[in-house]
Amino acid sequence: MSVRARALTKRFGRRTALTGCTLDIPAGHVTGLVGPNGAGKSTLLSLAAGMLTPTSGTIEVCGGRPGSGPEQLTKVGYVAQDAPVYAALTVADHLELGARLNTGWDDALARARVERLGLDPRQRAGKLSGGQRAQLALTMGLAKRPELLLLDEPVATLDPLARREFLQDLMEAVVEHGLGVVLSSHLVADLERVCDRVIVLAGGEVRLDGDVDELLAVHHRLSGPRRDGLPAGQHVVTAAHTERQSTLIVRTEAPILDPAWAVGALTLEDLVLAYMSPPAEPAGPRVHGPEAEGPGRRPALEIVR
Ligand SMILES: Nc1ncnc2c1ncn2[C@@H]1O[C@H](COP(=O)(O)OP(=O)(O)OP(=O)(O)O)[C@@H](O)[C@H]1O
């Protein structure tokens, strides 16, 4: 197992960033970590990297306690959200530092990437653009050849072409070296291309965790004439109603037999958005007319979990 968390909780003073998270991420997978701003994604990655310690609960990464010693540090690579580089050091200095600090350092990969990216080895990292700094930090993470690479919003500052190329590099490392990756991102379309597992965090809790194909196979969008009652025996994730129509996202392994429902497949983005949606006020009495659209009032949306 590459990450194993049990009742993992992290508080900062009175603020709870993560609460009771229980997770198993098998080795060698690419796991997308998604959730609204402030959901606890960076906190989870920092705990996995050993940059933070849990308030309660446990987390094990590649069979050890995060940050517990040199062996553990070799196994795990971590690129934080702000693409940490040493401003006063040049690009070449970074590669030299990487080679000195990491026993498994892949110098050929690092140099080839720097050249392909057009980074000047003599340039100080502090003078690189935001995207170039991110590329340098990601190069360091890949060249370290860890068992598990933790990436906090790695592609946020990259242009679309650079994003695609980086994700390809990542996939190559996954296929060729069995690298496991956990990456947080708000760009679900990117995650859809590279991830075979997904974790949705919201409000510091794990809302969804599993294999993407398996999750997509058991979630369906049902639409049909408006119904106020929810189908029995099914886990309704979201229910949205207009005056005439109801649209539900349900989780079920059983076939949907009721002919009144049109059954549609979901994309990963649909699924993620469904589990990210904040619990709304319970559907009240039906509201007709223009007041239904007024400020502060939104279409009835129920989340039943
Ligand atoms: N060092 C800290 N001190 C105090 N509160 C913190 C600290 N780090 C995070 N938090 C709080 O913990 C919660 C989770 O933050 P976190 O950065 O993990 O969220 P996130 O999902 O990564 O968000 P984003 O998508 O905006 O990057 C937030 O409420 C945040 O304010």
TrEMBL record:
Nucleotide-binding among keywords: yes
Biased composition, class Basic and acidic residues, residue ranges: 288-305
Region Disordered, residue ranges: 281-305
Record bears the keyword ATP-binding: yes
Domain ABC transporter: 3-228
Any one GO MF annotation of this record: ATP binding
Keyword line: ATP-binding, Nucleotide-binding, Transport
CDD domains: ABC_DR_subfamily_A
Protein name: ABC transporter ATP-binding protein
